[in-house]
Amino acid sequence: MTVDIASLIRAIPDYPKPGIMFRDVTTLMGDAAGLRETIHQMAEPYHNIGIEAVAGIEARGFILGGAIADRLGTGFVPIRKKGKLPYKAIGQDYELEYGTDIIEMHEDAVHPGEKVLLIDDLIATGGTAAAAVKLLRRLEAEIIGAAFVVDLPFLQGAAKLRADGIACHTLVEFEGE
Ligand code: AMP
Questions:
Q1: Number of structural domains, the chain?
Q2: What is the value of pTM for the model shown?
Q3: d(C-alpha 55, C-alpha 62), whole Å
Q4: Does the C-beta of 38 come closer than 6 Å to ligand 1?
Q5: Is 23 marked active-site?
Q6: Fewer CB within 10 Å, N- or C-terminus of the chain?
């Protein structure tokens, strides 16, 4: 039986605030067949093309990224919220709806020319992923692609990332509500 990934993602209206339809992937990750199929489909385009590291964005990108790194036979690089990494880190701010936030990477987490795959659970406006791309580029990584379970195309994040030269792989799309 095939797994319907979209139907395993729970929609929570008005979370974290009115007007937002939150796409909750914990229900997908909690389903054994759903998790396996998600990891399989996310990793699929990247076998045997020389990916050397998988970088995942805190926190759901860690769960998916760790499993994808294992599938691809690479190491895993965490991209974290500010102040969480113990060693010397570089930071990048990005826009939120109100104000800005900062994500960080260890300065030695990737080496120049390293072929990296970027992972998160969902791309909305693309601000978080664009900040991760900036960090990876500052460390001179070669970003081979970015993969997400969910794309919200009406927010244009994946389109912006593609316009910035990053090939995006997404599994399911939801329209706005
Ligand atoms: P953005 O920077 O706008 O692309 O937002 C992407 C990040 O925010 C991802 O790490 C998502 O987990 C989270 N996010 C944004 N919008 C949603 C949503 N509607 N449902 C679930 N997560 C979201």
A1: 1
A2: 0.98
A3: 8
A4: no
A5: no
A6: N
